[in-house]
Each structure stands twice: as structure tokens, then as C-alpha cells.
Amino acid sequence: MLFLYNVIIHIAGFSLKIIALFNPKIKLFVEGRKAVFPTLIQKIQSSDKTIWFHAASLGEYEQGLPVIEKIKEEFPSHKIIISFFSPSGYEVRKNNTIADATVYLPLDTKKNAQEFLKLAHPEMVFFIKYEYWINYLSELKKQNTPTYLISGILRENQLFFKWYGGFYRKALNTFTYFFVQNENSKKLLYQLGKTNVIVSGDTRFDRVAAILEKDNRLDFISNFKNNTLTIVIGSSWPKDEILLTDFINKTSLPVKFIIAPHNIKSEQIGQLKKSLTRKTVLFSEKEGENLADYEVFIIDTIGILTKIYSYADIAYVGGGFGNPGVHNLLEPATFGVPIVIGPNFSHFAEAIALVNLEGCISISNNEELSQTFDLLVTDDETRNKKGIICSNFVNTNEGATSIIFENIQKKTTLY
User: How far is Cα 309 from Cα 337, in angstroms, rounded to an integer?
Assistant: First the structure.
């Protein structure tokens, strides 16, 4: 099976080079990896002490950030290396200030793994949530490098639990500790004979809780809001926007809307704006405008949605009408904002919990969306109650970073 795995990786590498000729995202994936080894040679010296974090994409990076910040604080003499698998993570965070080197992770061939680890020579490694690259893990095991999974999630449909997944299960022997999000993940690892497991919870709660301590002011959003009740629509997809634009165009409620679409390509933004009959302004058009005069504000840029949520009275989080489902609920939740989502959220534990707690409302059609927004806009008591449920949910689930670090302290010899 390992031989077949390696063959598949090589075939995938060749195929991606062909696809890159026609697909801009895959082109970033392929071209970006050409700079990995030169970047490590330039930024990491053989005498440097290093710690390596790997994130699949942007969400995993944000999830691991509390641990990265804590490790950087506790080991100031070590250089931090962060790798990404996906362009949607790397391209957004390649200029982060916390890492000494930020790179794509080369495809998981044995040769790439050996070269990467030779140049990075980490004394400690963290994989965030998932991604189990067999050759990298095998080389880390050979080098006896302490390796940790943080905010891990295990599910029964993963390859580890298939009859043909023996070579994949063997790779789990690499990990010094598994810090998992829930008891079910711990149970599944126990079934594989892994007892080096701790239920630490999800570090995303620490991440979003820390947002409250930062400066979230955006004067242009304050000017637009103008003390008017505001619904913030975050990470929306076209299927969300069909329902939302219909409501926005028809409602007579005294409310403003901020829309931050998941896709900010000019064509899609143009279509969204054209579908609205309300007075609408784009972020890219805001200079010189009296924003208070507008009813809808479309954010055609990235990186400020979290701060925008601090101005929300109600949040709609998109993605719930597609697969795999709804986007991050915890950012609006930490600000004590009631949340509305689409019907597809069964893969997201925090969404399930918040719906059950009634801080979040799931809708499936235009009528339910209209009824929900009408209720939350007109009933102050209900809106405030649901907002408090959301903020309390974040507060009561903090602490994963402390649990992880306390246990690492017991094992590490890096001090």
C-alpha cells in the first residue's frame, strides 16, 4: 500500500502541473512550491533552532494561532516555520509576522520530506487538526522528533479505520501526543491502541476569545452603521445570496446590511450589487462617499470580517446551503451576536451546539429567513438573549491552549 501511495503522489504531482496551465489556483499551488527550498535556505540557517507548524489552509492556521503565539513566547530563541498545503491559506497569510519562514508544504514524496526536514531541522512539530502525510511522518519518526496533533478531529470514515488502512495507521505511531477536540476522537484513537491522547478541546475558542482584547474599530463601518441596527452577512455564497438579496430588497424593517462574500471576484461582486435594489456601496468605492446614506455595504476585500462582526447586531454566516457546509460561527459568537445559518451544518460541532442551545437559528428557505430576521430585529429581548448564549458558549469552551502547553512542558527538553 505504501508503494501505491507513493505512486499516486507522483502521478498527482505530474497531473497538477498540467492542470496548472488552465487553473489559476492550481498554478499557485504548483508555482509556489518551487520557492520552498530556496526560502528555507535563505531564512533558516543550519545553526538555528526551529519549531515547525503545518496547517492545511487558512482555517487551520487561525485555529493553531494561539498555540503558535504561546510557543513563540516560551521559546523566543527558536525560529518558527509555518507550512500550508492550500493556496487559500498560504496566499492570505504568507506575510504573517509570527513566523520566520512561511512556505508551501512540498508534495509528500520521500525525497521532498527528507529535503524539507534537512533544511528545516525542527526540534518540535505540530500538525493542526488533520493532514497526515505519510512520508513526512515516517521521516519525523526516524529522527525521533517530538510531533503533536493539536485540535485533532477523528471520524470513523477516515482511512485509519478501514481494513486497508494499515499503512496509514502505522503513521500515527509518529505522534508524541494527540490533543483532540472531543471524547469521540479519543475513543477512536483508543480503538487503534493509542493511549497518548488528551481531550484538550478546540483552540479556535482561545483564538476568538482573544479577539475581544484587540482593537476592532473600523471608522468607515461605524460611519455606515450610523447607530442603526445592522445585519452582517459573512462568508456568503451565491446560494445564500439568492435568499438574502430577496429579503433585503423586500423588507421594510429599519435595518442596514453589510455583506462580506466568500468570493470577491469582480464579476461575482458586480452580479451581487446588480441584484440589490437598495442603495449599495462597495468597499472599493467608499472613498469620498457619505456612507451613512447607504443601506447596503458590500465588502469586496479580505481580512476585516472579524472586526466587522463587532458592529453586528445580528449575523448571518454563509456556506450552509452547500457542501461541506457553514463557515466559522465562533467569530460572531464571541461578540455576543445571535447567528443565522443555512441547513447544512451537521459536520460542525460548534454549529450543532449553538443550534441546540438556541443561540443560533438554522433556516432552509425564504419564509424561514424572513421570519427569523423579523423576530431578531423587532424583539430586543430575544435578540439579546441569543447573543448572550453565543458569547457564553465561547467563554465556557476556552482553555485548550493551556492544556496543550502544560502537557508539552512535561515532555519537552527544549528549555
Answer: 8
Is residue 178 within 8 Å of residue 149, measured between CB atoms? yes
> Cβ–Cβ contacts within 10 Å for residue 235, how many?
19
| Burial per residue of 191-219, b for 16 or more beta-carbon CB atoms within 10 angstroms, e otherwise | eeebeebbbbbbbbbbbbbebeeeebeee
**Dist. CA 269–CA 284, nearest whole Å:** 11
**In sequence order, what are the residues at sequence separation of 6 or more whose Cβ sits closer than 8 angstroms to the Cβ of residue 308?**
218, 221, 232, 234, 258, 260, 299
CA distance from start to end of the chain: 40
Q: What is the pLDDT of residue 232?
A: 98
CA 224 to chain centre: 28
Same fold for the domain at 33-201+399-411 and the one at 215-396? yes
Cell 530556496 locates to: 38
Neighbours of 382 (CB within 10 A): 14
Return the CATH class of domain 33-201+399-411: alpha beta
* Euclidean distance between CA atoms 69 and 126, whole angstroms: 13
Residues (pLDDT < 50) of the chain are: none
**Helix/strand/coil for 233:** strand
Task: Output the nine-digit C-alpha cell for 10.
Answer: 507522483
Radius of gyration of the chain (CA): 23
- Residue ranges of domains in the chain: 33-201+399-411, 215-396
259 C-beta neighbours (distance < 10 Å), count: 27
Which residues 6+ apart lie within 8 Å of 57 measured at CB? 84, 85, 86, 88, 89
Task: Write down the pLDDT at residue 88.
Answer: 87
- Distance between CA atoms of 216 and 163, rounded to whole angstroms? 50
DSSP label at residue 412: -
What kind of architecture, by CATH, is found in domain 215-396?
3-Layer(aba) Sandwich (3.40)
